[in-house]
Amino acid sequence: MKILTPKTRREFLRTTLAIGAGALLAPRFGALAAQSPAPAAPSLRAQKLTWAGVRLQLDSGSLFLDPLINKDVWGDGLKDPMIPVGGASGDRFVLVTHRHPDHCDPEAIRQALGSDGTLVYAAQTGIPNVSGVKMRAAAMYEPVLLGDFTATAVPAVDGYGDPQVSWIVTAGGRRIIHCGDTLWHGAWWHIGRQYGPFDAAFLPINGAKFSWRKPVTDVPAVMTAEQAVAVAVVVGARLVVPIHYGVVGAEGYAEDIHAVDELRHFARQRHVDIEILKPGDWVAWRA
Predict the structure, then answer these.
(1) Confidence at residue 225, expressed as pLDDT on a 0 to 100 scale
(2) pLDDT tens, 208-244?
(3) What is the per-residue pLDDT for 40?
(4) Measured between alpha carbons, how far is residue 216 from residues 74, 183, 213, 220, 248 in Å?
């Protein structure tokens, strides 16, 4: 019989343990690999509503951004139909970018929320003037869990100088940014680095000029189509869906009537995908 020295005994034990561990662990890991489910397909759906409104839809609930159903806000200046927002099932949430009536419509908010939904606003924009609903304030840059949605308020710049934010929402395997009626500003690079890329960016494009604020400047108080394309490049948006355009003839409010054509032009130049939707249409996600 061969006598094992301390050195050969240690080598024998190491070899035996390694073989035993391989025999025990390999089948288990192989079985786990075989049973691991494939990643779930993205389930978020996104619908363009009237004006700047967007609806995000999951099986578990709905989240609305800046819904509008009040025809009196723009009168005959806006020809688009008012898309209904009531009757949603599951969890219901509304986010507002700011308190102007074309973005914070009390009746649209109440209908979208039903009896138990929650209106979420950025604390810096002030409490919305909406009665009869539950409200929740959110701090800038601080993610808020809303059912299966996660929402984060990030900077925006308002044409009046009033407080305004943009919203980033992640849900169902997608991430979007909704930018109300912001101007161009310098925080886009921070937003892109911290939160990008985005599956879609809902961006204002009409470059509107106001004449009711004195003295009149003749400077756009809303982002232009060219600036919207630049935003998409900076933040890493795979798709731009234009919002906040289509008002013609409103007193003291003049938008760029060629905004959609200009969006197509600048998007081609910078190789940015765009999707022009009518109110009520759903986004066709890019791969």
Answers:
(1) 98
(2) 999 988 999 999 999 999 999 999 999 999 999 999 9
(3) 80
(4) 21, 17, 6, 11, 19
Rounded CA-CA distance 44/36 in Å is: 23
Q: Where are the beta strands (DSSP E) in the chain?
A: 45-48, 54-58, 61-65, 91-96, 118-122, 134-138, 144-146, 149-155, 165-171, 174-178, 200-204, 209-210, 240-243, 253-254
As given in the structure block, the two tokens for residue 110 are 């109440």
**Whether the Cβ atoms of residue 135 and residue 128 lie closer than 8 Å to each other:** yes
SS3 of residue 168 by DSSP = strand
Q: How big is the chain by its Cα radius of gyration, in Å? A: 26
Rounded Cα distance between 176 and 187, Å, is 17
Upstream peptide bond of 101 is cis (omega within 30 degrees of 0): no
**For 225, left (φ over 0), alpha (ψ -120 to 50), or beta?**
alpha
Q: 3-class secondary structure for 172-241?
A: CCEEEEECCCCCCCCCHHHHHHHHCCECEEEEECECCEECCCCCCCCCCCCCEHHHHHHHHHHHCECCEE
pTM of this prediction? Answer: 0.87
Q: Which of 287, 280, 285, 286 is nearest to 80 (CA)?
A: 280
Helix 188-195 and helix 225-235: axis angle, to 10°? 40
Q: Which tens digit of pLDDT belongs to each residue from 164-198?
A: 999 999 999 999 999 999 999 999 999 999 999 99
The rounded distance, in Å, linking the Cα atoms of 223 and 273 is: 18
The answer to whether residue 33 scores a pLDDT higher than 90 is no
Residues 6 or more apart whose CB falls under 8 angstroms from that of 12 comprise 4
- CA 191 to centroid of chain Cα atoms: 12
